[in-house]
Write a structure and sequence with these properties.
With 202 residues, the chain is an alpha+beta fold. The chain has 2 helices and 14 strands, in the order H-E-E-E-E-E-H-E-E-E-E-E-E-E-E-E. Strands 1, 2, 4, 5, 9, 10, 12, 13 and 14 form a 9-stranded mixed β-sheet that branches. Strand 9 and strand 10 form a beta hairpin. The radius of gyration is 21 Å and the shape is globular. It starts with a helix and ends in a 5-residue tail after the last strand. About 29% of the residues have low confidence.
Length: 202
């Protein structure tokens, strides 16, 4: 009888440990801060570019692809999000023939948002949370150019831009995350955009 009681207790303890680990491994939502920042390892040679302030009153380019799925990579895995209907027709028209002020590849994670304006190859980085960190938008290419990160150090509720020059026949992909300027480290949650044509033509 005693052995039976011990085996039941052992099974109960194991189930409790599994339940606890499942609860603690649940990913934070894009709008929620993780319990503690989780560092993202970046290449040692990654180039960090400080974004410049936009002109007062300058409009932020229309995010043409906000209604599409966004691959969100948080501490535990990918999640798809999308903006509810209402903009679907406008988004479809913008994708078919984007204007010069269209911002493509719109992606957002906790405290950061970013997109790519094909006219001028401008990377936009928006800071949406007052947490002592900066919005960061990493840019990857499909032709081997070294990764660069556009960092917005202007504070919460601001947009910063990094004006780059990418190959017109190439594609770029954005990685949106947080950056701590005091330590020089990057943190999750993070989000990746899909591949964006530099010339704006899908």
């Amino acid at each position: 009888m005693r052995e039976n009681w011990r085996s039941k207790l052992s099974v109960l303890a194991g189930a409790s440990a599994l339940a606890f680990s499942a609860v603690t491994a649940t990913p934070a939502l894009a709008d929620d801060a993780p319990v503690s920042p989780q560092e993202v390892q970046m290449p040692a040679d990654v180039k960090i570019v400080e974004g410049g302030a936009t002109d007062p009153g300058a409009p932020v380019p229309f995010p043409a692809d906000q209604a599409g799925p966004v691959e969100s990579v948080e501490p535990a895995g990918p999640v798809e999000t999308s903006v509810p209907g209402g903009q679907a027709e406008a988004v479809g028209a913008a994708r078919a023939s984007p204007s010069s002020s269209t911002c493509l590849g719109s992606a957002a994670a906790y405290g950061s948002t970013g997109c790519f304006q094909h006219n001028g190859d401008i990377v936009w980085a928006g800071d949406t949370k007052k947490d002592g960190m900066s919005a960061a938008v990493g840019v990857y290419t499909d032709y081997g150019r070294a990764e660069e990160v556009c960092v917005n150090k202007l504070g919460v509720d601001t947009w910063a831009t990094c004006n780059k020059d990418y190959r017109e026949d190439g594609d770029v992909r954005l990685r949106v995350l947080r950056y701590d300027g005091d330590t020089g480290k990057f943190y999750q949650p993070e989000t990746w955009s899909g591949w964006i044509p530099v010339d704006g033509k899908y």
